[in-house]
Amino acid sequence: PMTLSDTNKQIDVNHAKRYIDAVAEAEHTSDEEFFFWFDRASSLDEYFESGVLTLETDILTPAVLDALGSTNFASALEIGHGGGRILLAACSKFEHVTGIDIHTSNEPVKRKLAASGVKNYSLYTTDGSSMPAEVNDLDFVYSFIVLMHIPSIDTFRSYVAETRRVLRPG
Predict the structure, then answer these.
(1) CA–CA distance, 146 with 100 (Å, rounded to integer)
(2) DSSP annotation string for 1-68
(3) What does the alpha-carbon distance between residue 146 and residue 144 come to, in Å, rounded to a whole number?
(4) Average predicted confidence (pLDDT) for the chain
(5) What is d(CA 29, CA 61) in angstroms, rounded to the nearest whole number?
(6) Among candidates 156, 158, 144, which has minimal Cα distance to 76?
(7) Most buried by CB count within 10 Å: which residue of 27, 43, 72, 124?
(8) Strand order in the sheet with 121-125
(9) Looking at the DSSP assignment, which residues form a beta bridge with residue 96?
(10) Is the dihedral of CA 122, 126, 129, 134 positive or negative?
(11) What is the pLDDT along the chain (170 residues), one digit of tens a residue?
């Protein structure tokens, strides 16, 4: 018989596969459809401008900025970079930004970042529960409307443990 843990793992696998397949399908239509799959907008300019607004109002709040001190030389990691709308904005605020996602469709994001002259980033496809960083390696980890889509508490706990592992003390 399947245990609750086995059931959660199967839910994670099924959820991840549906997401990865849907993103890949959007990638194969056009860059515009790829980006709009993550967040509808009237134009690509509006799509990426909304990333700036999200970063500046919902993520880098006054309390977060006080805790960081300065973001000019800080490293950040975005859990669930999706189409890169927030990651592009974060690259202007941080020395280096790492984006992780479970999808493998990073080429449209790389093209957009290159077209915008952005070079201070890394993109990784992960298993949905790990982060490509050393212990105490990062100054800031953020995610926006991603963690609510995680289908199991085990994966959520992995993200919390990984965040704690990779963040510098303080």
Answers:
(1) 11
(2) ---HHHHHHHHHHHHHHHHHHHHHHHHTT-HHHHHHHHS--SSHHHHHHHHHHHIIIIIS-HHHHHHH
(3) 5
(4) 89
(5) 36
(6) 144
(7) 27
(8) 121-125, 96-101, 75-79, 140-142
(9) 75
(10) negative
(11) 555 565 556 656 787 889 899 999 999 999 999 999 999 899 999 999 999 999 999 999 999 998 888 766 689 999 999 999 999 999 999 999 999 999 999 999 999 999 999 999 999 999 877 899 999 999 999 999 988 888 788 888 999 999 999 999 87
Q: How far apart are the C-alpha atoms of 100 and 102, rounded to whole Å?
A: 7
Q: Write out the two tokens for 134.
A: 């050393």
Q: How many CB atoms lie within 10 A of CB 31?
A: 17
Q: Name residue, tokens 């995610």.
A: 143
In this prediction, residue 3 carries a pLDDT of: 59
Q: Name residue 148's amino acid.
A: M
Per-residue pLDDT, 15? 79
Work out the number of other CB atoms within 10 angstroms of the CB of residue 101.
25
Phi/psi at 125 (5° precision) = -95, 125
**Overall residue count recorded for the chain in this entry:** 170
